[in-house]
Specification:
The structure holds two protein chains of two kinds. By secondary structure, chain A is mainly α. Chain A has one domain: ABC transporter involved in vitamin B12 uptake, BtuC, CATH 1.10.3470. In chain A, 72% of the residues lie in helices and 1% in strands. Chain A has eleven helices and two strands, in the order H-H-H-H-E-E-H-H-H-H-H-H-H. A two-stranded antiparallel sheet of chain A has the order 1-2. In chain A, a hairpin with a 2-residue loop joins strand 1 and strand 2. In chain A, helix 2 runs antiparallel to helix 3. The N and C termini of chain A lie far apart (49 Å). By secondary structure, chain B is α/β, with parallel strands linked by helices. Helices cover 39% and strands 26% of the residues of chain B. Chain B contains ten helices and ten strands. In chain B, the strands form two sheets. Chain B has a six-stranded mixed beta sheet, sandwiched between helices. A four-stranded antiparallel beta sheet of chain B has the order 2-1-4-5, with helices on one face. The longest helix of chain B has 18 residues. Chain B starts with a strand and ends with a helix. The chains are: A mainly alpha, B alpha/beta. The interface between A and B is medium-sized, with 19 and 27 residues. Magnesium ion binds next to helix 1 of chain B.
Chain lengths: 298, 236
């Protein structure tokens, strides 16, 4: 029974990371209808910047917000200088819907290349002061560590912050309106281009936090977050791609699912399991658990 | 003159949707532009509100050119467009749709005042504030779209076929609301319609267009009493 609860706790911790990456993908999807493969690259770059901040300031807790702000800026730059001009240039052409997605793959490759040049293709340690050794309960050590706890708390704070912005502020209303009906939004005076950039910046911040929280549990290399992108993507699809709550629930479901597979079946199958879960969800509920049935009114 | 459209031409690729169109509208007038399906009515309004570019000619509002400006900026100069087809955002609540109308404005007191005026005019919206706009009837959606526009405090209101797909009784309600609004606020209104009877019923003047070209214009009474026009363009 304790194993069962421990597995859930560990699953929630990794699920929080997936939730952040999934949120990052959903925010971009909602604001520009692009599946952002560059998210893994953007997050790895911001994590490298966090790593640099850490090696100068010797303080993980200061490097964390630096990584997050860097992630927001990187994402805003990618949107303003690559995605937006590209969308305008490809408008009306046969590649209109696919060109931006391919461009995100290009950016992913480019960022990895740059990271490899600057930091080398080695495994760096970006460490947090928190122990990754499990808490002691009585005389037994459980797998859930202070680092896991920080991950869950950090993710929860950011998710609550986003939820509050989306629900209670004008900016949140503008972000939602612009994602559903850009034209009506413009006719209501919303500067949709600017709002899209902000949507990407939020997405970059969420991805950066995921990267900076997960990296202390592993290592940092130019493609160390690629698997996180896959998990975030599966979580986003489970959640229905459109829904912010869905993104979070999808991440947690996936995290807990992985933890159980790891605990009871073995680590060899976890990666394939992600894809099996993805395909099953797509077959049973193509719109995801939180997606709306049928098509949205365009 | 408030709104002046001069030799305007608008293309959709090779299709000329508006062809050498000129007209002028005085402050406080309610003018209806009547034309059948495909006449170019929507194209004209979309160009006037900055959503699409024009090929040649000019259009100005209060002496300033409105062409080449962005829709989101024109809203701030008082030009508000209620686009075709019950322009609400179904994924948002009624209250949020109304809030959109004033989202760019700083004067929160006046936004609250404008909102209460809209709810006085359309009490059914007030009863449904927390509901999703997707739960509204067609008539209620049209009320919501017009209500949202009013919260922006427009000087020039561009309405694209508010009667489309609505039952006669509902059309009557909406048109009398439009009439009440312009009487009360002194708005200038361009009302684009296929439903000539209802539109001429509240308009000061009508302009008839066909295949993007000017046909004729005149007071509502004179257009309605011309049997040739009625047979050819007005459909009654
Ligand atoms: N986006 C578009 N692309 C190509 N042709 C269009 C487009 N929008 C409208 N048209 C054409 O322009 C003409 C005028 O259309 P529209 O302005 O919608 O007329 P109305 O609103 O009076 O029914 C029609 O021939 C229509 O087919
Ligand atoms: Mg039309």
């Amino acid at each position: 029974m304790t194993t069962f609860f421990n597995t859930i706790l560990v699953g929630i911790s990794s699920g929080s990371i997936y939730a952040l990456m999934s949120l990052s993908l959903v925010l971009v999807w909602r604001s520009t209808r692009v599946v952002n493969f560059a998210a893994a690259g953007q997050a790895v770059l911001s994590t490298y910047l966090g790593y640099e901040a850490m090696s100068r300031l010797h303080n993980y807790w200061l490097s964390l917000p630096i990584a997050v702000i860097a992630g927001a800026l990187i994402s805003a730059i990618v949107e303003s200088f690559v995605m937006r001009p590209l969308a305008k240039r490809s408008k009306g052409s046969p590649v209109e819907s696919i060109a931006p997605v391919i461009a995100t793959l290009g950016i992913l490759g480019l960022i990895r290349g740059i990271a490899g040049l600057v930091w080398g293709n080695t495994f760096l340690q970006y460490t947090s002061p928190l122990s990754s050794k499990g808490f002691m309960i009585g005389h037994t050590t459980i797998p859930f560590s202070p680092l896991n706890a920080a991950i869950v708390i950090g993710a929860a704070i950011v998710l609550a912050f986003f939820a509050a912005i989306f629900r209670f502020t004008r900016l949140g209303l503008a972000l939602r309106a612009a994602s559903f009906q850009p034209e009506i939004s413009r006719l209501s005076g919303i500067r949709v281009d600017r709002i899209r950039t902000i949507g990407w910046a939020f997405a970059g911040a969420a991805g950066a936090l995921a990267g900076a929280l997960v990296t202390p549990t592993t290592y940092l290399s130019p493609n160390s977050l690629d698997l996180l992108l896959v998990s975030g993507f599966v979580a986003a699809v489970i959640g229905g791609l459109e829904s912010l709550i869905g993104a979070v629930v999808g991440g947690l479901v996936l995290g807990v699912g992985f933890a159980f597979i790891l605990q009871y079946i073995g680590s060899e199958v976890t990666f394939s399991a992600a894809f099996i879960i993805l395909i099953i969800v797509l077959f049973i509920r193509p719109q995801g658990i939180f997606g709306r049935g049928g098509s949205r009114e365009a | 003159m408030t709104l002046i459209v001069d030799h305007l031409r608008i293309q959709h690729g090779t299709i000329t949707a508006i062809d050498d169109l000129s007209f002028a509208i005085e402050p406080g007038e309610l003018v209806t532009i009547i034309g059948s399906n495909g006449a170019g009515k929507t194209t004209l309004l979309r160009a006037l509100s900055g959503l699409i570019p024009t090929a040649s000619g000019s259009a100005s509002w209060k002496g300033q050119s409105i062409l080449g400006r962005r829709a989101e900026d024109l809203v701030r100069s008082g030009i508000v467009h209620v686009s075709e087809g019950k322009a609400v955002i179904p994924e948002l609540t009624v209250a949020e749709n109304l809030e959109l109308g004033g989202i760019w404005r700083k004067d929160k007191t006046d936004i609250a005042l404008a909102t209460s005026e809209v709810l006085d005019l359309f009490p059914r919206l007030g009863e449904r504030m927390k509901q999703g706009a997707d739960t509204l009837s067609g008539g209620e959606r049209q009320m919501l779209a017009i209500g949202r526009a009013m919260i922006a405090r427009p000087d020039l209101l561009l309405l694209d076929e508010p009667s489309l797909g609505l039952a006669p009784l509902v059309i009557e309600q909406i048109f009398s609301a439009i009439d009440a609004l312009r009487q009360r606020l002194g708005l200038t209104v361009v009302l684009v319609e296929q439903n000539a009877i209802s539109a001429l019923g509240i308009a000061d003047r009508g302009i008839i267009i066909n295949l993007g070209k000017f046909v004729t214009s005149g007071s509502s009474a004179s257009l309605m009493s011309d049997p040739t026009l009625r047979a050819a363009y007005l459909g009654f």
